[in-house]
Amino acid sequence: MLRAILTVFGIAEILRPEVLIRAAERLALENPDECELRPWTVPVARAEGVAFLLLVRRGGSYSRFKKFLGIMGLLSLLYPRQYLRYATKLAYTDADACHWRPWVYQATRLVGLYYVVVAVKELVRPSRTNVEDSQST
User: Fold this and answer.
1) Could you report how far apart the first and last alpha carbons of the chain are, in Å?
2) Mean pLDDT per 10-residue run, the chain (137 residues)?
3) Dihedral-angle region of residue 58 (phi above 0 means left; psi in -120 to 50 means alpha; beta otherwise)
């Protein structure tokens, strides 16, 4: 399911990153019209979409990607305010003017928890090599 979600999200980021960003701003920011995106935010979002598509379609890369999500998830789970503050400074020229709705911090924690669970499941899942070795003996 994660692969399907990331694929759809990646395609949306490639084709229409502005639409995706503006929709997220209207949903999550109390004052979306007062926040100005940095010039690189849209191209970086598009590049992220390409990266998602490349990573979710390759076996070994996808496994490593899920482990990386676990690291990012741990940060957002434990430090949602700092995580959002850092991301806001990267994406907006006037980060201090952007005010997140209160629920966004809890949502950041939940997404972080989900990413940690995905990574842990990937870490405890037997690798194909180990399974093949045990079946051949």
Assistant:
1) 33
2) 87 96 97 96 95 80 88 96 96 96 98 96 74 44
3) beta
Name the residue ranges covered by the structural domains of the chain: 2-125
What would the DSSP string read from start to end of the chain?
A: -HHHHHHHHHHHHHH-HHHHHHHHHHHHBS-GGG--B-TTHHHHHHHHHHHHHHHHTSHHHHHHHHHHHHHHHHHHHH-HHHHHHHHHHHHBTTGGG--B-THHHHHHHHHHHHHHHHHHHHHHSPPHHHHHHHHH-
